[in-house]
Records
---
Amino acid sequence: MDGVGSNISTSQPLIGHTFVTGKAVNGQCNQTASMPQRFLFFFMLLVSFLLVSCGEREEAVEVSLDKRQEITFRPQLPAITYAYLPQYSNTESFQRHHRLVEYLAKQTGLPIRQVFPDSFADHISMFGQGKIDISFSNPFIYVKLANRFGAKALTRIVEEDGRAEFRGQIIARKDNKAIQSIEDCRGKSWVAVDPSSAGGYLFPLGHFVDHGLNLRDFKEVVFAGGRQENVILGVYAGLHDLGSIREGSLRVVENKIDIDQIKVIASSRWYPGWVYAYSPRLPQDAADKIRTAMLQLDYEDPGHRALFDAAKFIGFIPSDDRDFDPVRELSKKVGLNLE
């Protein structure tokens, strides 16, 4: 027999007894109850229940219909959406940027709220769908957004070291004696951040190509779901021989692991830094207000210092599309599609 009961054998007792047509076997009762007796038993049980219920009435509670509270649905008001490319967790993204978002909204008088793409690909898709108005991303993602959807550069950030450029790093465990140089990476397992990560993949890939290593020269190349932390933890745990991250990412996990156990094998050349870009759907006057508010921020101003310290950079500079030509040239060299 198929179905739920097909695995139950009626030849075996269920919890010590098997009930067959009203008879209890296995030693409990060998008398067959007649139909009138059973009816009388259930009738008396029902009457007893009703008597008890009637005898234990609860006091009535008066309900006033004059005191009511209307429950209304409050739809989310239209706002300019701001998204940080998710190279870290959503919690980290919020902690880094919510002060800046609040400042921009207050300074411009525009409603601005932060949204959280789940991945690099999701960030690109949401921008194309009009769900992201202001994008903060690496230059490789920016070039894709510009080529596909007409994104326009707004500003570039100044890193904590005072540069408006950044670079990638190639890391390994310090106790991994088999990897001491770029050439030693040949035939090894490489974990990178994401195929669209600049510092965590594209820049190190360009560095490998410049030193004679191509993708086929590695045992494997795997990606860590767009999270810098995952790359570092994967190398630290010995799951992969080497990893690639953007410079500065080791500080993100310094409270989780002993980062002294990680060594930097090499660093890529410098490339134009992270960029704010805006959607062609955003009115130009709104974009201009946001750009002006960004450029008015001053790291030396005590009122702005906490905002910058949280965001992990120290300023803004104006930017336009031509700043990112080096990224386009690198993409062609390593054979990556920017469309």
Note: The domain at 80-164+272-334 is CATH 3.40.190.10 (D-Maltodextrin-Binding Protein; domain 2).
---
Amino acid sequence: MSNGTLVAIGIVLIVIVAVLGLLQYLHQNNLVSTSYPGQQGGSGQNQSTSDRSTAGTTTTQQSGNSGNATFGYYSFSEVALNATIVTASPANLSQISQISKFRSCAGHDFSGYDFNGTLESARSMKHYFATLSSEIGLSHTVQMFAPFNGTLIYDNKTLDYPNGDQIVVKSAVDPVIGVELFHIDLLPGITVGTTVRSGQLIGYKNASEYSGFDVAYGPLNSQYPCGGRCQTPMTGIWDSIFNHMTKQVLNEYANVGVTQSNVIVPEAYRNANPCIYPNETNYGSSGVNAIEWSDPKNWVNVT
């Protein structure tokens, strides 16, 4: 057998070994991706290509990670997106009368991508916590708590938000995830960079605001601040906080009549029964349908 033939056989064997090695690596790491067009903003707003120009790709690797979910300009561990990390209620349930459903028509349009990668629109992909009528207008009575161990990474106090602060708490256990709380007066000494404990009292519902506050859950943009419509560290990818509560926290809500099954509207139902928002032409604009706001079908009563 000639030297040329031996060399050719050697090259073929090397290629085969390399291909088999690559296939084994892909299989072991289960590199399966779900793609989502990029979106940013704390109010469910779409972002144009020019607005995204300074945003990078965020990739979080964790042990046991079964793959990444890629949202256009973002990439998150699927383990992170499915994590059960909410170890405390953000609200004192004895002070709450109703909780709006995820995908309800209450409030304004707060929509974006869900955790399955579907772009949803004309719905509220967060929860409103309405206070007891006896608490309305009272200053520093309705308590708000840290939903997990974490760090306060955003506070829009500098933007002169008229009805309390809009803040973001990043999870210490799963730093890919944040919870956004709206209309809160923070306690003195709690500022950006403050470490908080699960269940810690961090502030009170702002008394000048309507009869409640809002809670949104989703992954964080590690490139924040990033200009354009990147208004908060949130990415505009939303899920119900109830999908990420521990069994103990879920039991606390179940004891007052609130469960995952009755506080989350299925996507298919909302698609077939769209919300109507007056004067709204894009995500996050200010139109609110007063009839929808008061419609019982958008709420679960706290008993």
Note: Residues 22-65, 281-285 have pLDDT under 50 and may be disordered.
---
Amino acid sequence: MGRVCREIFEDAVDSCNSIRCTSFTNCDNIRCNSFRNCKWWNVPCHIARAACVVAAAVARAACWVARAACVVAAEVARIACIAAAGIALAACELVNIVLDVIGFIIELILSIPIIGGIIRTIINWVTEIIWRIVGLVDFVASLVGIRPRKKMYFGVIVPPVTPIASDADIQRQVDAVIDIYDQTCNIDMIFTGICHTKVAPPETPLNIACDAGGFFNDWWLVGSYFEFASATCKFTDSFRRVIGLGAEIIVFIVQDVTPSATTNGCSFGSTHNYVVVEAQSTDQEFVAAHEIGHACWLPHDGDPNNLMNDITPFTNPTLTNLQISLVRWSKHCVYF
């Protein structure tokens, strides 16, 4: 949750820094432009010219004084604005630390095998349905082409097992996620980083079955592991994951996704806040983007060029209008 505080603070500071004195910028242009062609014998004209020059000099000096006062006032206002934003940030961070601690405690409970897994599944689906209902107008607007910029957070957790994908191969998947959703959905995919967790998985090799067995295994030790690793590795998103809105999608790197040799990623949709991918150098670079699509309710698509084809395209994948609207409608996709 704290990331929202920092984003708001940064926007506020940008606004504060835009406070500038934009007045009295043409003081040097104040000149006496009258009575320039006085004849030598026209004494009144010369007197008027002298008075005009003096008046212009006085006005110019007054302008400079006003300019200095304006600059000082603007700087004081800018500093006060930044100080107020800092105070608001501290208050916001304090509130969010409390909320994330509460979320962390809840996640520890949800990491208990069986009972925690069942409750976790129920919470994920309830929050998904609630936020879909809340965002129904936004979904309809997206269908007709009204798509203001939205944002979605995602991060990567790498378990301490070998062999495992390298950070370079993971970054390849990350870059593809950012590019495809930016270009097709007008979504700013904000990457929160790669976390190399010290929490060891319950079994090695870390193989995940993308079938009914894998779904129900999420209620047992592996699912508990993913929940606990998320809570400890992505603490600042704890409360968001509990309430669902704007929850970060976590990409877990695993050693193998089954049942087939060509399966290199898996998602169980709204049941989980995470997806799993192998992220090997030989995999298509859009595997993580494909699984994130599943997490946002996108089913497989028969078009070989579509991101959601069961064989992920190697280059330039597409999304349909309905798919774009479904992704933007997800509880993970927010305006703030």
Note: The longest strand covers residues 187-196.
